[in-house]
Specification:
This protein is of the alpha+beta class. Helices cover 31% and strands 24% of the residues. It has helices spanning 55-61, 65-75, 86-99, 141-161, and strands at residues 14-23, 26-33, 102-105, 112-120, 126-135. The protein has a five-stranded antiparallel sheet with strand order 2-1-5-4-3. The chain starts with 13 loop residues before the first strand and ends in an 8-residue tail after the last helix.
């Protein structure tokens, strides 16, 4: 079943899913439903992207604050779309962890923003994440705020189907 049929979004949005097959080179992309707005993101199925630069990577890191600084430091040589400082990254991660949602504010790719949410299994472990991405004109702050509940609710539904019965965001 196509991922986009399970998430209430516009067909023009780009939705991606990644499972927690994280290595030193980042999470592996396992599915992408490409939107119709014409913008092409550099993400491709099977590709690995930096945890500290992508919404999904940040969502996978939400419950491991002890890894945030080291992850950022290890990925600093990676070409960045923005000049995000470690302090700004750590501050934003604290906010994301409390909300249960992570954002990519053009950290990975210029002009691309996304809202991501973690997926948990029956044990409560974060095993995957989903995100919705769009170009700046279609992903204004107001829309990102509204999408937090959509992505969080969708991730919670998937998590419940995987046996998770704890707190959902």
């Amino acid at each position: 079943m196509e991922l986009s049929t399970r998430i209430p979004i516009s067909p023009s949005d780009t939705v991606s899913a990644r499972r927690n097959s994280v290595s030193a080179s980042g999470p592996r992309i396992t599915a992408i439903s490409t939107g119709t707005r014409g913008a092409q993101m550099r993400s491709r199925v099977g590709q690995r992207l930096p945890l500290s630069r992508t919404g999904i990577g940040k969502a996978l890191l939400l419950v491991t604050p002890e890894r945030w600084e080291a992850t950022f430091d290890s990925e600093s040589p990676v070409e960045q779309a923005t000049h995000q400082t470690k302090e700004a990254f750590l501050s934003r991660m604290k906010t994301y962890a409390s909300e249960g949602i992570a954002l990519d504010l053009e950290d990975n790719e210029p002009g691309i923003r996304c809202v991501a949410a973690p997926i948990r299994d029956g044990s409560g472990q974060i095993i995957a994440a989903i995100s919705m991405s769009a170009t700046n004109p279609y992903m204004l702050d107001e829309r990102m705020k509204a999408l937090k509940s959509v992505m969080g609710s969708t991730a919670a539904q998937i998590s419940r189907k995987l046996g998770y019965s704890g707190k959902t965001f």
